[in-house]
Amino acid sequence: MLVDLDHLLADPIFQENRCSIQFHPLHTYYAMAVYVVFLFINRTLKIIGIGLLFHMLTDFIDCIFTFSACNSCLESSPIYPLLNLLLS
Predict the structure, then answer these.
(1) Which end of the chain is less congested by CB atoms within 10 angstroms, N or C?
(2) pTM of the complete model
């Protein structure tokens, strides 16, 4: 998906065990809020918004799987506050 082009802005471009949520510009909570707004505009943007939100969900799940073997890694990851909020 084109949303992953923002990975090219990262330094380094690839880093093992890096969570893309809150790291890449199009994977931030602010960007996700824009994707939610897409759901209410028109049919084309609604479809794009759904696709982007599913992409963010799969990246979020990937982050959880990546850090599941290391509790201290998970606690220091950018998704930990959101994960805590969702589980409380």
Answers:
(1) C
(2) 0.83
